[in-house]
């Protein structure tokens, strides 16, 4: 397959706001926990080891493409992989998520963070290259965590519900906060560039937890750093998707920091989101729990999201957040069939 075939894929066409024969679909967290073949492959391998092993990355990235027939692959990795690669003491603990040995809460901690070079992550370059060959006309989405979401793990030391320590640093020591996010923006941009240089066809910047912020705090403490990342990775033909959970009040701002496509969770209809993001395409926004509903409800909800997506300049069907681990893989396959059938033009 030539690069040209990929550039005309429904996914990349929709990202550019062009007509597509049908609405493209992929799922956040499609690679991983919900698939029995993933659990079997990962059984004896720690998460970060899997993320550093090109053959495993390639196989896990391909599993949902083969099984569900989705319109894009998401690179198997994690938002903490680049942090571990520059020496941060972080692990991914099963059932919890990222856990940081020494949380960063002062300038000395910030200054110990160095930038990432391609030599730090040879396994990323190798795996992306292998995947580009295997995927043919199916696009590969690279990704990274945005400065705020990464900072939340580094400051809290792990997952949080309130982000109290993160916000305390932001408001109590803004110089430390901006220095931290400045370094994280550099690491994130470098990590995304490695993926793009190796052949990723689009990138998604996950600011998963930005929705916890007021619009004012987002504008003052977060937007400049996300903008720095997105402008550093602006490349012709490589769309930038930007997504946060519970971020309906931030959608306009998240578009304006430099996204081509804005991801939307299920709390706000795409019709309303379309009015907030201007000329940008939208990605979303089926509630992930709909995959546990009876088939007629699932079909109805898929039709609703497709109809609402028509308000956008381009629509990529997705969930409003990641696939829940207990999801039946067949419900995902069925959703892809529904999206393709109901949107055929
Ligand atoms: O489709 C895919 O699964 C692709 C790979 C992928 C992605 C895109 C993984 C593998 N992680 C991520 C991104 C990621 N990681 C985000 C942003 C997306 C989102 O909002 O869901 C975040 C916030 C993380 C951090 C993280 N890693 C968590 C969340 C913890 C919390 O704060 O609630 C968890 C549970 C992980 C571990 C992880 N990462 C990926 C997988 C498959 C897993 C599960 C662990 C395992 O299988 O052992």
TrEMBL record:
CDD domains reported for this sequence: URO-D
Highest taxon in the source lineage: Bacteria
Domain Uroporphyrinogen decarboxylase (URO-D) per the UniProt entry, residue ranges: 24-33, 141-157
Pathway the protein contributes to: Porphyrin-containing compound metabolism; protoporphyrin-IX biosynthesis; coproporphyrinogen-III from 5-aminolevulinate: step 4/4
Subcellular location: Cytoplasm, Cytosol
GO BP terms, alphabetized: protoporphyrinogen IX biosynthetic process
Binding-site residues for substrate, renumbered to this chain: 29-33, 78, 153, 208, 321
GO cellular component: cytosol
GO MF term (any one): uroporphyrinogen decarboxylase activity
Reaction it catalyzes: uroporphyrinogen III + 4 H(+) = coproporphyrinogen III + 4 CO2
InterPro entries xrefs: UROD/MetE-like_sf, Uroporphyrinogen_deCO2ase_HemE, Uroporphyrinogen_deCOase
EC number(s) from the headed UniProt entry: 4.1.1.37
Residue(s) at site: Transition state stabilizer: 78
One Pfam family, short name: URO-D
Keywords: Cytoplasm, Decarboxylase, Lyase, Porphyrin biosynthesis
Presence of the UniProt keyword Lyase in the record: yes
Protein purpose: Catalyzes the decarboxylation of four acetate groups of uroporphyrinogen-III to yield coproporphyrinogen-III.
Family recorded in the similarity comment: Belongs to the uroporphyrinogen decarboxylase family.
Quaternary state and interactors: Homodimer.
Name of the protein described by the UniProt record: Uroporphyrinogen decarboxylase
Species per Swiss-Prot/TrEMBL record: Stackebrandtia nassauensis (strain DSM 44728 / CIP 108903 / NRRL B-16338 / NBRC 102104 / LLR-40K-21)
